[in-house]
Predict the structure of Enoyl-[acyl-carrier-protein] reductase, mitochondrial.
Amino acid sequence: MLVNRLLTGARARAPLQTSLLETWRLRGRTASSYSASSEPSKVRALIYGNHGDPAKVIQLKNLELTAVGGSDVHVRMLAAPVNPADINMIQGNYGLLPKLPAVGGNEGVGQVVAVGSSVSGLKPGDWVILASAGLGTWRTEAVFSEKALIQVPKDVPLQSAATLSVNPCTAYRMLMDFEQLQPGDSVIQNASNSGVGQAVIQIASALRLKTINVVRDRPDIRKLMDKLKDLGADYVLTEEELRMPETKTIFKDLPLPRLALNCVGGKSSTELLRHLAPGGTMVTYGGMAKQPVIASVSLLIFKDVKLRGFWLSQWKNNHSLDEFKEMILTLCNLIHQGQLTAPTCSEVALQDYQKALEASMKPFVSSKQILTM
Ligand SMILES: NC(=O)c1ccc[n+]([C@@H]2O[C@H](COP(=O)([O-])OP(=O)(O)OC[C@H]3O[C@@H](n4cnc5c(N)ncnc54)[C@H](OP(=O)(O)O)[C@@H]3O)[C@@H](O)[C@H]2O)c1
């Protein structure tokens, strides 16, 4: 089984109890629960009080550091990316919206500064990532509940740790959970240069799956194609090339894909479907073109293709924290083995957040903006 090749660690099952907002609200300081002495410190945070254009509603403000209860952990944030979901959340267009005012950002890596008296699994100096979305990572420091945190090895590169908990997990689940793929099978995807797309290429390559990767055309398309091939992509095509009849020659050497991963919607997803094997599955996990998925009636009737969706937050609701930790461990092993790297990133200091927000909303930037604290 493919899964056995990558999975390590225990399979214990326990309910995921992390509540979305429980850790970011201000609470009363309980000095006795704090294992290291600390004066109240000012936290710099990117906060929004209303939904709207991120460039207009996000402001850099001072926050009082949340008090540290017995089961809490004081974390100094090191780096946090700007993902499309963060932007959608600020715009008010996402499946999960924190109560306002809220701190932006859903993932990132931090270092433990101090722990409450009943915290047993973490100690000062450890690196941690967030187990849940909606906790607000675009800030210099925070106090989180221990159960909202997952420890990651400190020898994982900073950019990999900061971008580990969303995109690689999404790529991994989509490759594992929808079709029983075997080495040599093929997978087709669009938006292949996205954070998720780059993780799909690398994890699929580690699983000895072949990938057909579709990207939008651009002036420096050869450079992008070479970059994705260096990551392990077998074929890289533009949306236009995918529509050409010659593309079918690829399938002289490869089996038709049983899995298609759609991040775009509209015509792009219709093209993915056209190349899917009979009975295959297209998983939609993003809608970057903001257009509906259109599936031809004949494909549904004569090829019986399946249309599915994936949302990592929903997966986490239905699985235990231990299962999530097990996946993180598996992905860290791939990082250690040199089989999974961070997407191309640009580090931007927290105070230069406007630059990062602007770049993350522009087309063809092809570089994940990472706020550094
Ligand atoms: N369902 C889930 O659980 C889940 C988890 C993670 C991510 N996501 C979603 O997956 C998507 C990608 O996230 P990410 O962090 O990987 O993104 P990212 O690294 O910021 O990359 C965005 C990608 O979208 C492409 N794109 C933007 N507008 C497009 C359009 N109109 N038509 C075609 N492609 C377009 C970009 O292509 P260019 O380089 O050509 O501009 C780029 O490849 C987002 O929609 C995100 O919300 C979903």
